[in-house]
What we know:
Blueprint: H1 2-7, H2 20-23, E1 32-34, H3 42-48, H4 61-64, H5 67-80, E2 83-85, H6 88-100, E3 113-115, H7 117-127, E4 146-148, H8 151-155, H9 164-177
InterPro entries: NAD(P)-bd_dom_sf, NAD(P)_dehydrat-like
Keywords: Flavonoid biosynthesis, NADP, Oxidoreductase
Protein name: Anthocyanidin reductase
Amino acid sequence: MSACSKAGTVKRVVLTSSAAVITVNQLHGKCLVMDEENWSDAEFLTSKKPLTWHWPRHLTSLITGNELLIIQLKGIQMLSGSISLTHVEDVCRAHVFIAEKESASGRYICCAVNTSVCELAKFLNKRYPMYNIPTNFGDFPSEAKLIISSEKLIKEGFSFKYGIEEIYDQGVACLKAMGLLQN
Length: 183
């Protein structure tokens, strides 16, 4: 930031952070909406240091059947309140969109999909029946307790190019190409 300031030619800086910046807290209830006004509980984060912070690999756990990663995926939902997904290309597009938008100011959330482990498993089981994806999680919460709202970004005129179908179709194709998933 100081280099940008010293340069004198930088008009706008766009920073990226994960959903953990707004969702990791000890809030209780259902149907909570998290937006640019929300921040995670920093004291809670630093005291707990959850193991689920490196979570992109967990998104394939239901397909690969990795029990440890499924447990960690459930931990992500319990810690953050939902499973939130955005295609990396949409994140990049949002960066450029906001950087070029004269009226843009403050924080913007870029989240295409909010779901829960149970909802995600049902979706994946239906879309990829050949992988025998588990859908019974006992008394684990079937709904996300919160959604991450991209309303401010959308009101600026941004639209998401990828939904959950494309995110997982591309992910599965990548895993197959790498030999990490059978046909």
